[in-house]
Design brief:
Length: 148
């Protein structure tokens, strides 16, 4: 296990210096789940287009673009692609976030923030009918880096 990248040997927090790193094409995929009652999932599935899931999708995309405003030591990045998809299952909504950039640092945090905010938006939209929902399993599932 390596050292914490945002903490100096003296224990001070710092933004990582990526200035000497080459620019590369980077991609990260994150997933998360909102567990809910089957009746809540049924009601979400039956909503018309332009529904709460679209609001969650847009919230996730907007959040990815604002990650450096939300997490103090993240670098602001020029995102070239953000995709957030939501799949309603029998008793859950699975959310996938894909983020891409060509930069000197990765987009893992942007993908995780996109999924987290989309999940919280689903929760907010459905909490009136199901206050036992749980946001769970938010995780980075893939990251790649290739020459630019």
């Amino acid at each position: 296990m390596g050292e914490l990248s945002h903490v100096t040997g003296a224990g001070d927090v710092r933004m990582v210096d990526v200035g000497g790193k080459p620019i590369s094409r980077r991609r990260a995929v994150a997933r998360g789940v909102v567990q809910m009652a089957p009746e809540t999932a049924r009601r979400l599935r039956e909503l018309p287009k332009g529904d709460a899931l679209v609001a969650a999708q847009l919230a996730g995309i907007m959040a990815a673009k604002r990650t450096s405003d939300l997490i103090p030591l993240c670098h602001p990045l020029p995102l070239s692609h953000v995709e957030v998809s939501l799949e309603v299952g029998a008793a859950s909504v699975e959310i996938t976030g894909v983020v891409e950039t060509t930069a000197q640092t990765g987009v893992e945090m942007e993908a995780l923030v996109a999924v987290s905010v989309a999940a919280l938006t689903v929760y907010d939209m459905a909490k009136a009918i199901d206050n036992a929902m749980v946001v769970t399993n938010v995780a980075l599932v893939e990251k790649t880096k290739e020459p630019a």
